[in-house]
Amino acid sequence: REEAGALTCPRAPQEIRELQAQLQEQHIQVEMDISKPDLTAALRDIRAQYESIAAKNIAEAEEWYKSKVSDLTQAANKNNDALRQAKQEMLEYRHQIQSYTCEIDALKGTVSA
To answer: What is any one GO biological process for this UniProt entry (predicted)?
Structure first.
């Protein structure tokens, strides 16, 4: 009964308006809190995207590096083969020169005799 009597009091409409205003403010506050983006989740998503891009870039860089090392290794092997072949030819030419030098010396000996 006191509650019913309190509502008929001249202050009751003012208190009701104040309570309604408080409820409305709380409702707005709740809506604002709900509508705020979840920054933690957003940062987590951004970090995941960044890490994905970084991992992709690292993989691409490693692939490029391996490709260049492979190219250089093949070029070095090719050059080593060419060098080995040139040394072999030089050795053969040296043997021919020695053979011709011996032959010339032998012919000089027969001419002077």
So the answer is: intermediate filament organization
Number of domains the chain contains: 1
Q: How far apart are CA 19 and CA 4, in angstroms?
A: 16
Q: CA 73 → CA 28, 44, 60, 67, 78, distances in Å?
A: 69, 43, 20, 10, 9
CA distance 80 to 83: 5
pTM, two decimal places: 0.47
Domain extent, residue 48, equals: 2-112
What tens digit of pLDDT does each residue of 22-69 get? 777 776 665 555 556 688 888 999 999 999 999 999 999 999 999 999
The C-alpha atoms of residue 30 and residue 91 are separated, in whole angstroms, by: 93
Structure token pair of residue 92: 């053969």
Name every residue whose Cβ is closer than 8 Å to that of residue 6 and which is 6 or more positions away in sequence: 12
Angle at 91 between CA 86 and CA 94, to 5 degrees: 125
Sole residue written with tokens 């040139």: 86
